[in-house]
């Protein structure tokens, strides 16, 4: 079965897979999920892949998890954790700017994965020609993603400014 999926691979990969006992072969299909409308409820929230699982095709999933941790920490800093309403407000303030950004990045990764791995074989030369000889990929990813990341850096600046000017309780 595995050799059926890898017969078009280059190099020694098909031969290595064919020589491997099928009992030792595993596949881990990548699953995609639509963005959640809300990450938390009450005093709890989720972050990283639990909130916005991102396929590896944009190479940004771990980075977004780190960003989540930073922004969550900044929003909760100085909050009375015994005050349920303060915690919920801080969590809502954390989630609101993160959801659109992470959804956009996860969707970009999803599309890149589909284009890379699910283009029908007869259309692959056309796909490759478009990606290699037009600015499509640069426009869709190369120019949009840095802007998104710069927006997140600006969010860090805003979070730091708010944190350093917040009165200590």
Automatic annotation (TrEMBL):
Alphabetic keyword roster: Monooxygenase, Oxidoreductase
Superkingdom to which the source organism belongs: Bacteria
Domain FAD-binding: 19-104
UniProt KW Oxidoreductase keyword: yes
Any one GO molecular-function label of the UniProt entry: monooxygenase activity
Protein name per UniProt: FAD binding domain-containing protein
Originating organism: Cryptosporangium aurantiacum
């Amino acid at each position: 079965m595995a050799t059926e999926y890898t017969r078009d691979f280059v190099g020694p990969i098909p031969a290595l897979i064919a020589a491997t006992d099928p009992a030792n072969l595993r596949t881990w299909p990548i699953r995609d999920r639509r963005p959640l409308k809300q990450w938390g409820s009450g005093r709890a929230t989720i972050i990283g892949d639990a909130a916005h699982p991102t396929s590896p095709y944009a190479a940004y999933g771990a980075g977004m998890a780190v960003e989540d941790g930073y922004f969550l920490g900044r929003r909760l800093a100085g909050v009375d954790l015994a005050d349920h309403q303060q915690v919920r407000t801080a969590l809502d303030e954390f989630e609101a700017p993160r959801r659109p950004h992470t959804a956009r990045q996860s969707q970009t990764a999803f599309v890149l994965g589909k284009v890379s791995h699910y283009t029908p074989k007869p259309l692959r030369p056309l796909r490759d020609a478009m990606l290699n000889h037009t600015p499509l990929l640069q426009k869709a990813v190369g120019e949009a993603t840095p802007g998104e990341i710069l927006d997140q850096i600006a969010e860090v600046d805003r979070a730091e400014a708010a944190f350093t000017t917040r009165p200590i309780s």
